[in-house]
Design brief:
The complex is a heterodimer of chains A (about 110) and B (about 110). Chain A is mostly beta strands and about 110 residues long. In chain A, about 0% of the residues lie in helices and about 55% in strands. In chain A, the strands form 2 sheets. In chain A, strands 2, 4, 5, 6, 9, 10 and 11 form a 7-stranded mixed sheet that branches. A 4-stranded antiparallel sheet of chain A has the order 1-3-8-7, with no helix packed on it. In chain A, strand 4 and strand 5 form a beta hairpin. Chain B is mainly β and about 110 residues long. Chain B is about 0% helix and about 55% strand. Chain B is built from no helices and 11 strands. In chain B, the strands form 2 sheets. In chain B, strands 2, 4, 5, 9, 10 and 11 form a 6-stranded mixed sheet that branches. Chain B is globular and about 40 Å long. Classes of the chains: A mainly beta (about 110), B mainly beta (about 110). Chains A and B meet through strand 4, strand 9 and strand 10 of A and strand 4, strand 5, strand 9 and strand 10 of B.
Chain lengths: ~110, ~110
Amino acid sequence: GAVVSQHPSWVICKSGTSVKIECRSLDFQATTMFWYRQFPKQSLMLMATSNEGSKATYEQGVEKDKFLINHASLTLSTLTVTSAHPEDSSFYICSATLEDTQYFGPGTRLTVL
Amino acid sequence: DQQVKQNSPSLSVQEGRISILNCDYTNSMFDYFLWYKKYPAEGPTFLISISSIKDKNEDGRFTVFLNKSAKHLSLHIVPSQPGDSAVYFCAALFTGTASKLTFGTGTRLQVTL
């Protein structure tokens, strides 16, 4: 089956720093990738839709300048959490579409101290 | 290693009948389970969840059953409606500090008239 990877799987950073999370489709090309955020025991929340070669589409309430998304190739999308703060600590997961099926990455747990 | 498995890639049910979607997991450390519904090119929508301390959770037409000894959960939809046609993902979660959301690959439900 299609595989989506994320790197890193977990990261701990200091408040005020920026963190970049990579999402890769390993064996297929994905023109669209999704970025989600999840707090423990809560629903997965769609943050943005990452479109290859164009600007990402952000969901309502998601700060574009805080969560920078770049989808520079058909196999890679990156999410950069800028000037991270403790409230940004969460579980971030990406997914990529192949033939109308969403394949999810394993997620990245971000902890901001 | 697929820790959460949805062995039926597709399911077709007549409107008004019961839809039963199954999910198996291999890791006994999972202690929280969720079902998501997803339409093509959209992010998944949270449906219902269940903690490992329970064996049943009901919300309207949706009921999730958990059999811990068999490491099996199922989602029942009754009565099924055409609008229920979508891809359904089950997902499992560790609720400890190393929590990680693991998804199944989905089952496409088609509710026919």
